[in-house]
Structure formats: C-alpha cells, structure tokens
C-alpha cells in the first residue's frame, strides 16, 4: 500500500512517500480501516522531530485522526460490518498506545486499529469532517466544556484562536452563550474569526493583546466596581511569552485554561497574579470518547462547523505539515489518501 513514512526523526525531508509499504493484517480484536481522511495536528510535528523522553519505534506512519470505511475484520469482531463508516478514537484506552505515534496512523491507504476504538460516523457527516474532530476539537471540548465549564454570560479571551483547537473553542463558547474575544496573527485570520462568531478580534502582531483586552473590558482590580473588570476565562495553549500576560487579563477568581504549550512549556512565571487575583489554573489533557460522540452530534445538527482550510492527496502530506509548522493554517489540514 502507499504510505507516508518516517524512518528517523528530523525535518520534513524525513517524511517520504513509499508505494509498497507492507499492508496491515487483522489479528484478534482488530479492524482494518480503508482510510478516507486523516487530519494533521501540531502533535505530528513533534512526532516527526522527536520528543524528549519518548522513544518511538521506526518506521512510523503518522496521522492521529483517521476516518474511513471498515475494510476487514478480525475473526472475533462481531459489532462491525465491512463498509461501516467509522471514526477512530486515536487513544487505545484498554491496552494503551496512540494511533499515529506508537501505532501506525492515517497517512496511508489502510490502518489497523482495535475494534473498541471505532466510533460510528452519523449520516450527514463527511469523512473529512469526522477526521478533523478527535485531537483538535475533542481537546477543545474537554478543555472548554468538560473541565472548563464555560457558561452563558462569561467573557472569554482565546489566544491562538485560528488553529484547529482555537476555532472549536470559539464555537463552543458561543454555543454556551459566552462573549468571545479571539486573538490571531493576521488581519485575514482576524476577519475569518469574526465571520465564525467572535464578538471582538485582536491582531496580536500589530497590537499588544493585553492593552487591547483592557480597552475592551478594563484592567482587573480587586477594588470596588473595578473588581468586575477583566475576563472570566483566558484560553492559552501556546505558553511561552504569552503565559504571564494572559493572567493579567483575568478578573478576580478568573480561570486560565490550558491544554498544551506549542510556544514553550517552561515560561517565566509570576505567581503574584495567581494569589492576588485568586486565579484558577485549569489543565486539560486530551479528550474522552464522550467528547468525540458529542462533537459528531453537534456537527450532524449543524450547530458546529468543522473548519477545513485545505485537503491534500497523500503525497501532499508534507506540504500540509509544513503549513502547520509555519503556523499558516486557519482550522484544519486534511489528507485524503
């Protein structure tokens, strides 16, 4: 089968199309999926580069998010039929492992997964839409709803709002009835975030996002009427130099939600803001199957839009990954083998 394969860590040159990679065969409890769509994530960049403390077996086929049709069943699999439209939960929650990292992923014509990882795709939801959901949208839902408990009337500031996680955070906050200020790095992205439902947008390349936040909702204070100024929630999964400035935007008792650190995991800290304003730092790790199922229903109903910037053939996976690495993406990049 054709597959995009990594045989050693490094730059984009390590991602190569191989026309005759060995086809997977099903064992007990396995299902072979004919891959129809696989979306890429910044996690794939880390996987290709290599991550400290994580040793991966090579060769490796990346692509955590996989949607397609059941092609072949292990002898003991009875809950699924050939031809069923399925989305794969990338996390093997029973035996362990992660599709596209410790298990061959979706950048290939076929993918072997465990039957218990399959989620049925509802009618009206395309393979491309489904494939965009687990890692980015699933992470966003767990952070915003399951853990963050964003509610109607709250003011939310979202950094990195134009990526896959960010565009979902924006939509989920609006579905919940919150007011959203979205930050992006270009006027084009800012305009698209406005179209997607953001109440206000901040271009952080031409504006200090903290000052712009103060201009909108005031500088947080512990005193009198000013105690209501600032944001109820700041979403920051970039880390780096934006970490402490994010805390400066939160009102007393505000919540800082994070699910990653794409710009640096060891930022300068200033715990004075945490205790002075009684802030709550809420971490969120990945997603649960229930998050994926809820998202599929939201997409089917039309309440949630899956934002896909571009789809690529299998041989274009490197181009898609380059755009993600260079942060030239609005929403998701999807590969259709």
Notes on the structure:
The longest helix has 15 residues. Helix 3 runs parallel beside helix 4 and helix 3 crosses helix 9. 46% of the residues are buried. A hairpin with an 8-residue loop joins strand 1 and strand 2. The strands form three sheets. Strands 3, 4, 5, 6, 7, 14 and 15 form a seven-stranded mixed sheet that branches. Strands 10-9-8-11-12-13 form a six-stranded parallel sheet, sandwiched between helices. It is α/β, with parallel strands linked by helices. The protein contains ten helices and 15 strands. It is elongated. The chain has two domains: 160 residues, Quinone Oxidoreductase, Chain A, domain 1 (Alpha-Beta Complex); 145 residues, Quinone Oxidoreductase, Chain A, domain 1 (Alpha-Beta Complex), CATH 3.90.180.
């Amino acid at each position: 089968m054709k597959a995009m394969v990594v045989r050693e860590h490094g730059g984009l040159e390590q991602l190569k199309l191989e026309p005759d990679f060995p086809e997977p065969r099903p064992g007990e409890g396995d299902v072979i999926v004919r891959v129809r769509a696989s979306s890429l994530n910044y996690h794939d960049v880390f996987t290709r580069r290599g991550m400290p403390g994580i040793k991966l077996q090579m060769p490796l086929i990346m692509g955590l998010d996989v949607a397609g049709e059941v092609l072949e069943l292990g002898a003991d699999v009875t809950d699924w039929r050939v031809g069923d439209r399925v989305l794969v939960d990338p996390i093997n929650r029973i035996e362990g492992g992660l599709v596209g990292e410790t298990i061959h992923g979706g950048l290939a014509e076929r993918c072997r997964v465990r039957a218990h990882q399959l989620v049925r795709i509802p009618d009206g939801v395309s393979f491309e839409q489904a494939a965009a959901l687990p890692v980015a949208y699933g992470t966003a839902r767990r952070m915003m709803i399951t853990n963050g408990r964003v509610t109607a009337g709250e003011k939310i500031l979202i950094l990195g709002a134009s990526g896959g996680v960010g565009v979902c955070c924006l939509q989920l906050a609006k579905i919940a009835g919150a007011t959203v200020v979205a930050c992006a790095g270009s006027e084009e992205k800012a305009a698209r975030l406005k179209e997607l439902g953001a109440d206000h947008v901040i271009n952080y390349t031409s504006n200090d996002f903290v000052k712009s936040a103060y201009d909108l909702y005031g500088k947080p204070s512990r005193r009198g009427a000013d105690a209501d100024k600032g944001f109820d929630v700041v979403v920051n999964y970039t880390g780096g130099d934006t970490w402490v400035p994010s805390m400066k935007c939160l009102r007393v008792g505000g919540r800082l939600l994070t699910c990653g650190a794409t710009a640096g995991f060891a930022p300068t800290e200033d715990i004075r803001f945490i205790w002075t304003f009684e802030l709550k730092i809420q971490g969120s790790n990945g997603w649960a199957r229930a998050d994926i199922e809820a998202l599929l229903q939201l997409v089917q109903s039309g309440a949630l839009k899956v934002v896909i910037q571009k789809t690529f053939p299998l041989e274009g996976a490197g181009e898609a990954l380059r755009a993600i690495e260079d942060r030239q993406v609005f929403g998701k990049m999807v590969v259709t083998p």
